[in-house]
Amino acid sequence: MEEHNVAAALEHFASYKDEYLSDLKNLVRIPSVSFPGFDAVSVRQSAEAVAKLLTRSGLKDVRTLETGAGHPSVFGQRIEVPGRPTVLLYAHHDVQPPGREEHWNSPPFEPTERGGRMYGRGVTDDKAGVIMHAAAVRSYLASVQTLPVNVKVLIEGEEEIGSANLESLLENHRDLLTADVVVIADSENFDSGYPSLTVSLRGIVTVNVEVRSLASSVHSGTWGGPLPDPVLALSRMLAALVDDQGRIAIPGMLDDVRPLSAAEKAGLDNLPFQESTYRKQTKLLDNAHIVGGSGSVYEKMWYAPSLSINAIEASSRKQAANIINDSAWARVGVRIVPDMDSQKTQELLIDHLKKNAPWGVTVTITPESPAPWWRMATQGFAFEAAVAALEKGYGKKPAIIGGGGSIPFVRTVTEALGGVPALLVGVGDPYTAAHSENENLLISDWENACRSIIHLLHELASRK
Ligand SMILES: [Zn+2]
Question: Of 103, 258, 336, 408, which residue is most buried, by most CB within 10 angstroms?
Answer without folding.
Answer: 336
